[in-house]
């Protein structure tokens, strides 16, 4: 059987990528799993845009969605060219991005205003307003979502006007611009705080209690279904055939990443999806909606194939990337390689901070905020955490590793699952020091990789929809294991 080609569009908070993937369904002489090879054909930077302050004096942050869409189309054109060189056809396109954020679109398809970025401050005022209407205990009972101040429902409460508009989550907005078809992909819908965790459909009760218009979000679509085919203008600009379908994948990047965790069949799947955030948890088939789970702020997000991603958002490499951005602006050492080497040479047992604190959500001045938090935290050396980048980096990584260990212990207590190893996927899986510290803090073997879990998860769902792969998540994960090299870190090696 010949190879098959698919395109993944994967946009994160700090960069976006368009990837042409080749799936070789042949099982080969060894009867092993199918393989997936990725070619990144286009990369572009992304980041929040400072848009001044609003009438209440709150900082406004936005994303440049038209700019992202232009980059996506450039990437699709490059993917089409590479496919043509290889004499193959792009069978479909799948899109994933971060969750929670949305654009409001009118009947004619125009954006009401540039899209807000979830780290802006407008929900500070609306969290209490929402909780006044529906108390947090009740929200959890219905949606099973952890409290995050930027969840879609708090953002919607800050909108002066919703009537006459539909809310399109970021991947759905890009899919709308590519195909003209409006849908809401299910895994990402589960991050809005408006989906019923038991049924997987919108909670009519919450819409009513929160005064949200019915039909605010377009109809749900599940991974594997098709949004539609390319609009003529997109086909022309990208050079791709107009009948190229855009297929729904786990459009929440974390859903795609977890779909590609290279767990073995039957293994209890514990993971850290490590990027801007660290998403730490296990995969379940039913939500955990207990009061203990709510108190520990665990979330039940929906994954590919109706699975539940039972996890917590732990602070992530955002603390590090924001610090690097600041040091670079000050003309100091900011290269990741140099910083990690210097941090690795520092002794263990230094100061730690609570990486989950809301004070680290916003951009700017990160090293200063970390030093202040370390001084308050009272861990050894915290009061003297120096301005030295290596010391700050070591503090971030020690604190992340400790938070992972705490969260995995809680995951086991709350879910009853006791995984024997933890998979680290995403960009952070390349950070050897963090992986080693994680193994030491958790006492579990850390299986690092793949770096491109999100893109792989995106591709696997498309390949299965096209009949190039078959089976459930275990079969998809076998294809990941056949395609990538994992690195193992053990506590003993630290
Ligand atoms: C990771 C992620 C998290 C989500 C956060 C905000 O990229 O999608 O899962 O909580 O970004 O959308």
From TrEMBL:
Kindly state which keywords UniProt assigns to this record, in alphabetical order. Answer: ATP-binding, Carbohydrate metabolism, Kinase, Nucleotide-binding, Rhamnose metabolism, Transferase, Xylose metabolism
Which chain regions cross the lipid bilayer?
none
Q: Name one GO molecular function term.
A: rhamnulokinase activity
Domain Carbohydrate kinase FGGY C-terminal residue range list: 270-466
Q: Name one GO biological process term.
A: D-xylose metabolic process
Taking every annotated instance into account, which residue ranges of this chain make up the domain Carbohydrate kinase FGGY N-terminal? 61-258
- Name the Pfam families for this protein: FGGY_C, FGGY_N
**InterPro entries recorded:** ATPase_NBD, FGGY_C, FGGY_Carb_Kinase, FGGY_N, Rhamnulokinase
Name the domain of life this protein comes from.
Bacteria
UniProt record similarity statement: Belongs to the FGGY kinase family.
Entry protein name: Carbohydrate kinase
Taxonomic source organism: Sinomonas atrocyanea
């Amino acid at each position: 059987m010949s190879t098959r080609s698919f395109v993944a569009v994967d946009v994160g908070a700090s960069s976006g990528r368009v990837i042409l993937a080749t799936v070789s369904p042949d099982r080969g002489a060894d009867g092993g799993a199918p393989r997936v090879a990725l070619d990144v054909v286009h990369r572009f930077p992304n980041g929040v845009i400072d848009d001044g302050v609003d009438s209440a004096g709150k900082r406004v942050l936005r994303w440049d969605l038209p700019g992202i869409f232009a980059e996506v189309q450039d990437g699709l054109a490059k993917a089409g060219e590479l496919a043509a060189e290889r004499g193959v056809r792009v069978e479909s396109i799948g899109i994933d991005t971060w969750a929670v954020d949305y654009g409001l679109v009118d009947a004619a398809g125009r954006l009401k205003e540039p899209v807000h970025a979830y780290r802006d401050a407008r929900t500070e005022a609306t969290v209490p307003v929402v909780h006044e209407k529906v108390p947090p205990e009740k929200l959890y009972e219905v949606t099973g979502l952890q409290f995050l101040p930027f969840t879609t429902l708090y953002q919607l409460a800050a909108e002066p006007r919703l009537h006459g508009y539909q809310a399109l989550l970021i991947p759905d907005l890009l899919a709308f611009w590519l195909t003209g078809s409006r849908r809401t992909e299910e895994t990402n819908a589960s991050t809005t705080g408006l989906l019923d965790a038991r049924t997987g459909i919108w909670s009519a009760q919450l819409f009513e209690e929160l005064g949200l218009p019915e039909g605010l979000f377009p109809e749900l679509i599940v991974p594997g279904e098709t949004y539609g085919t390319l609009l003529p203008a997109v086909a022309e600009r990208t050079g791709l055939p107009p009948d190229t379908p855009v297929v729904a994948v786990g459009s929440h990047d974390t859903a795609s990443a977890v779909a590609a965790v290279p767990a073995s069949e039957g293994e209890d799947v514990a993971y850290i999806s490590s990027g801007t955030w660290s998403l730490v948890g296990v995969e379940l088939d039913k939500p955990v909606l207990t009061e203990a789970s709510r108190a520990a702020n665990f979330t039940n997000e929906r994954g590919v194939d109706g699975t539940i991603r039972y996890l917590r958002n732990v602070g992530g490499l955002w603390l590090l990337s924001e610090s690097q951005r600041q040091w670079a602006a000050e003309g100091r050492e900011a290269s990741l390689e140099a910083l990690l080497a210097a941090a690795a040479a520092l002794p263990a047992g230094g100061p730690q901070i609570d990486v989950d604190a809301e004070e680290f959500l916003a951009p700017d001045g990160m090293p200063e905020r970390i030093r202040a938090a370390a001084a308050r935290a009272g861990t050894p050396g915290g009061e003297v955490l120096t301005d030295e980048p290596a010391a700050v980096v070591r503090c971030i990584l020690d604190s992340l590793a400790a938070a992972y260990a705490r969260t995995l212990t809680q995951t086991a207590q709350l879910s009853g699952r006791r995984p024997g190893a933890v998979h680290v996927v995403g960009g952070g899986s390349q950070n050897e020091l963090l992986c080693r510290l994680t193994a030491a803090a958790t006492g579990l073997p850390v299986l690092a990789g793949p770096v491109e879990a999100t893109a792989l998860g995106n591709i696997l769902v498309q390949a299965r929809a096209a009949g190039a792969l078959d089976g459930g998540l275990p079969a998809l994960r076998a294809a990941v294991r056949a395609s990538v090299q994992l690195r193992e870190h053990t506590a003993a090696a630290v």
